[in-house]
Amino acid sequence: MLSRSFIRVPRLARGLATQSGPLTSIPATLHLKTGQSFHGRSFGAPKSIFGETVFSTSITSYTESMTDPSYRGQILVFTTPLIGNYGVPLNKAPFDSQDVGVILESQNIQCSAVIVGDVAEKFSHYTAVESLASWCQRNNIPAITGVDTRAITRLLRDQGTTLGRVAIGDDVSAPPPAAHEFWDPSFENLVDQVSTKEPYQLNPTGSVKIAVLDFGAKANILRSLVRRDAAVTVLPWNYDFNSVRDQYDGLFLTNGPGDPKHCMDAALKLRTTLQEWNKPVFGICMGHQIIGMAAGLDAYRMTFGNRGHNQPVLALASSGSIKAGRVYVTSQNHQYALKLEDPFPQGWEPFFINCNDSSVEGIKSTAESGKKVWGVQFHPESAGGPLDTIEMFTDFVLECKAHKLQTASTFNALKVAESIHDTLVKPIEADGVAVQA
Question: Residues in domain Carbamoyl-phosphate synthase small subunit N-terminal (predicted)?
Fold first, then answer.
């Protein structure tokens, strides 16, 4: 009897799954600029859109991927066949030393559309409040199910990232767009669309002050900083950090969408920062590319890009928790990368390299440069993905704290020396005659 009870438990749990509601029978089609079309049905907003068609190999965390600002302007194809089985949580969290106002990676869905093989019609998770279909409809995001995502993935893998159009409803019967009609998001400054417009603070009582240049920050980057007792000030991507840099103990540059060359203004300002400022600097994804361009490296568009939670990278140098020669599994989402040059710019060295395509995955300042600067193409904060490199946030915050203590000690020593100097040279009144000690 006891064994029968244990056998029945999974059936009971499955019976508690929430019905997402009947899916629509509205026809939907994905047209690729290269000529292929894939037909399915809509489960999102009933509107047609253009975008850049990319695929992600992530198995879980579809909600985090869809709210990642780096997917701005992209039609996101999930290679995992079943999507939506654990629903969507309420996307609200407190603003405190542990969180930053949201559960997911931003307030809203950031990708232009979603393509899945099979969307779950039932979802089950203790934090879920709605289905994937309801979420897409509420956020006005088109979505297609019932297509062969494996075939789409193989096409994209062979021919590279491709422009596409999602056609919904009556637009399905129209001819596919001509080649010149496809919209290419790479021509737009997507960073400017997703970056904060005004500075704001998180965890203002933290023990170390870190400025964050927001190129389209994932919330878990900010969360990873405030959980390490950092007082974070988030600034627009093109903010003149040099005018306020002495107020901070470190600078962080976040991820973001699109072509980094649209952000050359930020790279030129950062070049001045790196030349004149000796405090720690850390960049992720787009931030890594901005650091590289400031150092004199060039950025290029990759054929495929890297998107997913299973990208292996090899550490070429040791720094903090990172050990040279070790392979780390990482979460990534990028279309652009830094060129590997020989020789590297003076004062810089490669930090990581991708084990699959040998692209540059990280750079760092050399020990001889006297600087503390790191940039990585992957996402140490994951969300979702592996936590192999999460301690890089600890390394960065500890460096900021150490530099703050060193600066305070130097300042106090100078004040003491100044006080002693003033005492020794202060005129001494002796019988009304000033005598130098």
Answer: 26-167
